[in-house]
Specification:
The protein is an alpha/beta fold. The chain folds into three domains: about 10-105 and about 295-325, 3-Layer(aba) Sandwich (Rossmann fold); about 110-290, NAD(P)-binding Rossmann-like Domain (Rossmann fold), CATH 3.40.50.720; about 330-409, ACT domain (Alpha-Beta Plaits, 2-Layer Sandwich), CATH 3.30.70. The chain has helices at about 20-30, 45-50, 65-70, 90-95, 110-125, 125-135, 160-170, 195-205, 225-230, 245-255, 300-320, 350-360, 390-395, and strands at about 15, 35, 55-60, 80, 100, 155, 175-180, 190-195, 205-210, 235, 260-265, 285-290, 340-345, 365-375, 375-385, 400-409. A seven-stranded parallel sheet has the order 8-7-6-9-10-11-12, with helices on both faces. The chain has a five-stranded parallel sheet with strand order 2-1-3-4-5. The structure holds nicotinamide-adenine-dinucleotide and (2R)-2-hydroxypentanedioic acid. Nicotinamide-adenine-dinucleotide (NAD) binds near residues 85, 108 and 210. One of its GO terms (biological process) is L-serine biosynthetic process. Belongs to the D-isomer specific 2-hydroxyacid dehydrogenase family. Pathway: Amino-acid biosynthesis. Catalyzes the reversible oxidation of 3-phospho-D-glycerate to 3-phosphonooxypyruvate, the first step of the phosphorylated L-serine biosynthesis pathway. Also catalyzes the reversible oxidation of 2-hydroxyglutarate to 2-oxoglutarate. InterPro entries: ACT-like_dom_sf, AHAS_small-like_ACT, D-iso_2-hydroxyacid_DH_PdxB, D-isomer_2_OHA_DH_cat_dom, D-isomer_DH_CS, D-isomer_DH_CS1, D-isomer_DH_NAD-bd, NAD(P)-bd_dom_sf.
C-alpha cells in the first residue's frame, strides 16, 4: 500500500447531501479518517467559507460548484460527484485549477430505468388521477384513456447507459422501441434508431428523455416538439430539468394536448427538503411529480458511495485518474519505495521538454514516467528515488504552464 506525502489523517474530506455510509466505510478502509459528512447541501456562501481547508469534496446534484466556489479553494485536489450527472460542477473552473472530477457513470442507471417503466404503466392507466380521487373518497372505475404498454411505441431520447437499459426492459414487456441520439448507436434487441427527433415524437406513444444537460439539450422539448406528440401520448423526464420547457408543457397538459407526464427533474429544484416545491405542473391531473429521486434507491446509493469513494482514495494514494471526467486518464501502479511527482499542466508546446530538462540537468534518474494529455491539460507522472523528490518538486513547480504539482511517497 502506497503512503501519501500528507499524513492521511490530515487529508480533509467533506461529504455533502447525505452521501451513503458506504462512502465513509470505503474511505476509512483506505486509511482516511478526517471525514465530515453532512446530510444536506450548503448554500454558496457557507460552502465558500468551509471549502478552503478541504482536500476532497463529495457532492450529489444539489451542490453548485461555481467559479466563485473554486476561487475559494486552496487545497482542493478532487471532487467526487456521487451520481451520474456532472452539470452541477463548472468543469472548466475545476480543470483550470487541476482539480480532478469523478462520478459514477453507471451505478444508478437501473434505478432510473425501473422508475421510468413503472411511470409509463401508471400514466397509461391514468393512475395518478384515479388514486388522488380515491384518497378523496371518489370512485373512478372506468377504462377511458386506459391502455396496456404492450405493443406501444416507446421513444427514447438519448440512447446511453440509461436509455439503452430502458430499451431492453421495455422490450421484455412487449413494447416497440425507437430511439433518437446524436451519435449512431448499436440498437439492442429490436430497437430502431430514427434519424430525427421530430420523427420520434410523431411516432411514439411514450417519450422518455435520457440526455445530459448541455447547450444542445436546453429546451430541446419546447412548444414545437410537444405539438408533434400524439394527444394520447405521455412525456417522461428523468434527465435534467432544463431539457423541457416546463411552462409550455404545463399549458399543453392543461389543454389536454397530451395524456400525461412524469417529471422527476425541474429547472429550479428546492435546495433542501425544508424548502417548498413550486412548479407550474402542480395540480394537473395525470402528472406524476417526483423530487429528483430517479437514482435514489438503496442499491444505487450503496454502489455509488463505494465506487466514487474508491476513485477518490485511489487518486489520493497513487494519482490514478481512470474515469475522471475532466483530467487525462492515467492508470498508475503503486510505487513502493519511490517518490511520485504528479504534474498537471496546461497543454502547451514546450512543457514536456522543460520537465525532462529538469531531470537531465540535475542528473535525476527517472524510474517511470507516464504522460496523458487532453485538449486543455497534460498530466505527467514521474517516479524517482526518494533523495531527488524535494529538488524535483521545487523545479517542477516553476515550469511554465504548471497548474498543480504534488508529490506522493
Ligand atoms: N433523475 C435522476 O435521478 C437521474 C439519475 C441518473 C442520471 N440522470 C440524468 O440522466 C442523464 C443520462 O444518463 P446516462 O447515464 O444515460 O448518460 P449517457 O451519457 O450514458 O447517455 C446520454 C446519451 O445522450 C446522447 N445525447 C447527448 N446529447 C444529445 C442530444 N442533443 N440529442 C440526442 N441525444 C443526445 C448521448 O450521445 C448519449 O448516448 C444524465 O446526464 C443525468 O443528467 C438523472
Ligand atoms: O442523487 C442525486 O442527487 C443525483 C442523481 C442523478 O441526477 C444523477 O445524475 O446521478
Amino acid at each position: 500500500m502506497a503512503i501519501t506525502s500528507l499524513d492521511k489523517s490530515k487529508i480533509r474530506i467533506l461529504l455533502l447531501e447525505g452521501i451513503h455510509q458506504s462512502a465513509v466505510d470505503t474511505l476509512i478502509d483506505a486509511g482516511y479518517t478526517n471525514i465530515e459528512r453532512l446530510p444536506h447541501a450548503l448554500p454558496e456562501e457557507e460552502l465558500i467559507a468551509k471549502i478552503c481547508n478541504v482536500h476532497f469534496l463529495g457532492i450529489r446534484s444539489r451542490t453548485r460548484l461555481t467559479e466563485r466556489v473554486f476561487e475559494a479553494t486552496d487545497k482542493l485536489l478532487s471532487v467526487g460527484c456521487f451520481g451520474i450527472g456532472t452539470n452541477q460542477v463548472d468543469l472548466n473552473a475545476a480543470t483550470r485549477r487541476g482539480v480532478a472530477v469523478f462520478n459514477a457513470p453507471f451505478s444508478n442507471s437501473r434505478s432510473v430505468a425501473e422508475l421510468v417503466l413503472a411511470e409509463a404503466i401508471m400514466l397509461l392507466r391514468g393512475i395518478p388521477a384515479k388514486s388522488a380521487a380515491a384518497h378523496r373518497g371518489v370512485w373512478m372505475k372506468h377504462a377511458k384513456d386506459s391502455f396496456e404498454v404492450r405493443g406501444k411505441k416507446l421513444g427514447i431520447v438519448g440512447y446511453g447507459n440509461i436509455g439503452s437499459q430502458l430499451s431492453v426492459l421495455a422490450e421484455s414487456l412487449g413494447m416497440d422501441v425507437l430511439f433518437y441520439d446524436v451519435v449512431t448507436k448499436l440498437p439492442l434487441g429490436n430497437a430502431v434508431q430514427v434519424l430525427s427527433l421530430d420523427t420520434l415524437l410523431e411516432r411514439s406513444d411514450i417519450i422518455s428523455l435520457h440526455v445530459p444537460e448541455t447547450q444542445s439539450t436546453r429546451n430541446m422539448i419546447d412548444y414545437k416538439q410537444l405539438a408533434l406528440m400524439k394527444p394520447t401520448s405521455i412525456l417522461i423526464n428523468a434527465s435534467r430539468g432544463t431539457v423541457v420547457n416546463i411552462d409550455v408543457l404545463a399549458g399543453m397538459l392543461r389543454q389536454d394536448k397530451l395524456l400525461g407526464a412524469a417529471i422527476d427533474v425541474f429547472p429550479i429544484e428546492p435546495p433542501s427538503n425544508d424548502h417548498d416545491f413550486v412548479s407550474p405542473l402542480c395540480g394537473i391531473d395525470n402528472v406524476i411529480l417526483t423530487p429528483h429521486i430517479g437514482g435514489s434507491t438503496l442499491e444505487a446509493q450503496i454502489n455509488i458511495g463505494t465506487e466514487v469513494a474508491e476513485k477518490l482514495s485511489k487518486y489520493s494514494d497513487t494519482g490514478t485518474t481512470v474515469s475522471s471526467v475532466n483530467l487525462p486518464e492515467v492508470a498508475l501502479p503503486s510505487h513502493p519505495g519511490q517518490h511520485r511527482l504528479l504534474h498537471i499542466h496546461e497543454n502547451i508546446p514546450g512543457v514536456m521538454s522543460e520537465i525532462n530538462n529538469i531531470f537531465c540537468n540535475n542528473k535525476i534518474n527517472i524510474l517511470s514516467q507516464y504522460l496523458r494529455t487532453n485538449e486543455a491539460i497534460g498530466y505527467a507522472v514521474i517516479d524517482v528515488g526518494q533523495e531527488y523528490s524535494e529538488l524535483a518538486l521545487k523545479k517542477l513547480r516553476s515550469v511554465q504552464g504548471t497548474v498543480k504539482c504534488r508529490v506522493l511517497f
